[in-house]
Amino acid sequence: MVLARKNKPLPPVNTTTLVTALHIGASSVSMIIAEREENGSLKPIDFLEQPAPLARDVFGSTVVSNATTERIVTIIRGYQQTLAELGLDPHNFTRAVATNVLHEATNHERVLNRIRIACGLPISMIDDGEMTRLIYLKTRRRIQHLPAMSLRTTLVVHVGPGNTRALLFQKGLISRYTSYRLGTHRTREAVEASHAEGPSLLRVIREHASGNLAQLRFDFSDVSIDGLVLIGYEIQSVASFVTKNNEACTLKTLRQFTSETAALTDLEAVKRFQLDYQTAEALLPALEINLAISEILALKEVHIPTSEYEQGLLYDLLASRELSGSFATEVLRSARILAARYQSDAGHGEHVGKLCKHFLTNLQDLHQLTEHDALLLQVAAILHEVGTYVSSRAHHKHSEYIILNSEIFGLDRVDVTIVALVSRYHRHSGPRLDHSAYATLTTEDRIRVSKLAAILRVADALERTHAQRVSKIEITRTPDKLRIRLPGVEDAAIERLAMASKADLFEQVFGLTVVIEEEN
Asked: What is the DSSP string of 273-292?
């Protein structure tokens, strides 16, 4: 645990290149100051961390106490003073977030309001989508450090404070993502009433986790896992005691270390492993859950990163929103896996996606959508007909339901909601405020949905035959019309008929009537 600096000056830096991240975590509040170098990479300058028992409150009573809230406020104010001394705006962090554990507190809004009033700082809560992105970043670095793992089937397990997430990598690419309501602090609070100690406490923890462990075993029973990477705040805090130089830790070593730790009191664990008290409380559940997962997968060794978990998370927070390239590829892979699960027409979805991309590229000044919006549109194109698995009748509504109740790697809940709604609006009615999911969005996000759905409907009309016969598109614009020519298509009667029923939203949103012109 790294506490606040005392009289430790920072090296001279150019404040215009500094970026900052604040994280209100499950058991601590931390801040990183980093310098963005010319090539875009981040160079950590300073890292601060102080304990705060947020998770203990949330999982113990579902309410964050006033004492914990004021503790967090005091820590943040101290960090803000540090930024002010550097000549930085103390109210303008590059990223300022709270753990997704806070979602489960019944008074989370009051806590965030208190921080905003006391510190002049808006805090956003990390959701499952961003947490997955952060795990992905950490995992990608791990695979880079161990190149052999990129050629094997590797399962990465993150046992967090409230939930456990598992990412399956095959040849360096994500092929599966699952999550379980099983976490270190959640387990600690659940078993505390047993008053068990030592080996008895390990048995209670294992019994409490048995249902989720059985589900995890089932979820990965169809694959042969070559390597297991265990990440998480608590287990990485003690990684140096069970592994050296990033070498693998044998299951025998992990089992013995867990048994020895069970014999310690929380205070003894604090002293031996140099932990704060909140981390020490959750250490035994972390060790036993990770050990149990290793055992049910019948592996002889595991890999535990010895790097600082919290410092890495803050670093990744600054990079998470800028992900592109390989990350976008993983998002699309996840969408394709979901589409295949519901036996959607892959050729149709991919072709609609290509047509969407053509409109996005050629109408940028009109729609002014971002690269992230373009990614969501590609996902919607792939998934817009998954509802036919339920029924071809009203399949757009079934598509919305399936997507809303599915996980798409790397997308947060707002992203998934946007994809679900864009998929719903690919036919029949456009966006309406009496559609509950649409009504919950902000005005800005509702506009995004309307723009994306308008483009998807036009692209889908050109792929009405599901035969991919429209391969080229020529677009011209007049003040009131979007004129489309389809070179190579001699008779566009089918596409013209489909466009007549689907282009209405495009005209409403962009003010242009869509016209398919005859090939001369």
From this structure: HT--HHHHHHHHHHHHHHHH
